[in-house]
Specification:
heterodimer, A: Rossmann fold, Rossmann fold, 2 domains, six-stranded parallel beta sheet, 13 strands, about 15% strand, globular, B: about 200 residues, alpha+beta, two-stranded antiparallel ribbon, 2 strands
Chain lengths: ~400, ~200
């Protein structure tokens, strides 16, 4: 479904859209080049897929390129990803050399330019080496939590990052000391995407039938890539505790991403933990399963996002938007989306997750109230139109780095 | 009768900037408060007022929130939470008040200094504000009040301009000049009579 800016008016109001148009007028026809590591799978690709067409509609000349890399390179960057999250990883000089070599290869082959170049996450960070040829302003957009990084990896990446004009993080505590300005921009969801728009009851029913789910029993769901940092095995442990008192079902659904080679291993671990329980549904979804995901969440009683480490956790806002209470790990961006006791619960263990699930299952009114709170919270803070505005402000900010108050008129 | 100059409403939107400064004790907070940019003080004392809430916060001052939640310095937090922002026409005054409250508390406290848990540090942010005109224009007093509901940031204009531009800012940002041409329907008394809590928390 092709959407335009006007389609958001019933949700955010005409005033919000007018502000976007006014700000875009000040930005002008600047070329905004985004570079990331993949065009499918994961939150970054999802955001850019929805965000860039709206910026284009506002008159910004946007483009999006993806770096090349083989399995070896993406295995290295996955290790970097885990290490930057503070997970113990073996990092060798050979891995650093693979990163440098892949960066050099991309620099030789890429032929793109922009007035503002936004590099997403560590994988393409080295492209800054060609900054003067490729763009005027460079921004490193970090989507992950690097508050407790493996210093070997961070010390390797930091010289690249310090060469940018600015860095962007999703939360204050995700950042690291840098010599460049740092901005905070939260990610967002698109309320009109297939993953988030309203569905007809028959659409939800069909999905339940497709995955052999019983609509008459509570469904507990976690939607995430199969990644250890999302703790799917911990969610199974929580479910087993809940199951002792409530006859419920568990859905663990997620897709893979081309730049995540660990996914298959983790999926195997999840299948082993699920064993032969017919009420645990482990679903490896193909790309473009957004309608199924939408229906699964809408049919759920409770949604988990029991991450051990998390950047933002878009799935939380997606569930809150659908008025579902969310039980999430008290980490990363989940803490800005789940206001404890108001839009959901923050937990620290499978036992904590189980305890809160039992509390919610025993109190449907609490579920409904939290659901409504979560919807309002997302509406005010985590919608795509807010994100568009932040991009526009960021482009304006790069022109006037030393001013706290910028008069645009 | 001289027609008043049409009044164009401006609005403000901000990007949050990370300063990279973080603290985990009261002493560290005090030290940073002396040197952190004024825009950071403004951000942590005002941004919750300038944001929409589906459930109104009990406390709008983020220093107070952190003192209470992370350090359990509840008495000090309550004092800081009750600081009346209306009393200030400069960030410097507000900064000095915060410093004074904390210093006094530290001087009188006889307990071991508290340290927040890892992950609960206070991160100093600041805002980069962008001020720009909207398309909303009022041509007279009645028109002015009829268009106010269209604004999301009326309270922002009032408070922000006052702190950013000084105590006379209201005269340039609000149509007080209309009082000279149309005394009977001047908006000035109406605007000035709006209680600040209602203004800030609407």
């Amino acid at each position: 479904m092709v959407v335009s800016l006007q389609d958001y008016e019933p949700i955010v109001g005409a005033g919000e859209l007018e502000e976007l148009r006014i700000l875009a007028g000040y930005v002008g026809a600047r070329r905004l080049l985004n570079i990331s590591s993949t065009s499918v799978g994961g939150g970054v690709a999802e955001i850019l897929t929805r965000l860039l067409p709206l910026l284009r509609e506002l008159g910004i000349d946007v483009s999006w390129e993806v770096i090349k890399g083989d399995q070896g390179f993406f295995a290295v960057t996955k290790a970097f990803h885990n290490a930057l999250h503070g997970t113990e990883q073996e990092i060798t000089e050979e891995m650093l050399e693979i990163y440098r070599a892949n960066t050099e290869m991309n620099l030789r082959e890429m032929n793109f330019t922009g007035d503002v170049v936004v590099i997403h996450d560590p994988q393409p960070a080295g492209l800054i080496l060609r900054r003067s040829e490729m763009g005027r302003h460079w921004v490193w957009r970090c989507h992950i939590d690097i508050s407790t990084p493996d210093l070997r990896v961070w010390d390797f990446l930091r010289p690249y990052v310090d060469s940018y004009d600015a860095a962007v993080f999703s939360m204050p505590n995700f950042s690291q000391p840098l010599s460049i300005p740092q901005f905070m921009v939260a990610p967002s969801i698109d309320p009109l995407s297939d993953k988030n728009r309203e569905l007809e009851p028959i659409q939800i029913t069909r999905v339940l039938e497709k995955y052999d789910l019983d609509p008459d029993r509570p469904i507990l769901t976690q939607i995430s890539r199969f990644d250890r940092l999302k703790d799917p095995v911990g969610v199974i442990a929580a479910y087993r505790l809940v199951k002792k008192r409530h006859d419920c079902q568990l859905v663990l659904a997620g897709g893979g991403a081309p730049d995540d080679p660990e996914g298959i291993e983790v999926l195997q671990e999840v299948h082993e933990a699920a064993a032969t329980d017919p009420d645990i549904h482990v679903l490896l979804l193909p790309p473009y399963s957004d309608l199924d995901i939408n229906a699964l969440v809408r049919s759920s009683t409770i949604v988990f996002q029991k991450s051990i480490k998390e950047g933002f956790g878009l799935t939380v806002s997606e569930a809150l938007w659908k008025k579902k209470p969310v039980i999430g790990g008290a980490v990363g961006g989940i803490r800005t989306q789940i206001i404890n006791g108001i839009t959901g619960f923050l937990v620290h263990s499978p036992e904590g997750a189980a305890q809160r699930a039992l509390q919610l299952l025993a109190n449907p009114e609490l579920c409904a109230r939290m659901g409504e709170n979560g919807y309002q919270h997302v509406k005010q803070n985590f919608l795509l139109t807010r994100h568009v505005k932040d991009y526009l402000l960021l482009m304006l900010a790069l022109d006037r780095p030393d001013e706290d108050i910028v008069h645009l008129a | 009768m001289i027609q008043p100059t049409p009044f164009r409403f401006y609005t403000e939107r901000r990007l949050v900037t990370l300063t990279g400064l973080q603290v985990c004790t009261l002493a560290e907070l005090l030290a940073i408060l002396h040197e952190v940019p004024g825009s950071s003080i403004f951000y942590h004392t005002h941004h919750l007022f300038l944001s929409h809430h589906f459930e109104k916060p009990v406390v709008y001052n983020e220093f107070a929130l952190w003192l209470s939640e992370a350090l359990q310095e509840n008495a000090l937090a309550e004092k800081i939470a009750m600081i009346d922002l209306r009393a200030f026409t400069s960030i410097r005054q507000l900064r000095n008040t915060l410093i004074s409250f904390i210093q006094t508390h530290m001087d009188s406290a006889n307990q071991r200094p508290r340290v927040c848990l890892p992950g609960s540090e206070f991160h100093f942010c600041r805002s980069k504000s962008f001020v720009f005109p909207t398309s909303i224009v009022a041509h007279d007093v009645a028109d002015f009040f009829s268009k106010l509901p269209r604004l999301q940031t009326f309270r922002c204009s009032f408070i922000f301009s006052r702190l950013a531009f000084g105590s006379n800012a209201g005269r340039t940002t609000f149509p007080f000049g209309w009082s000279r041409v149309d005394k009977a329907n001047s908006p000035r008394p109406s605007i000035c009579s709006i209680p600040m809590p209602a203004l800030l928390m609407s």
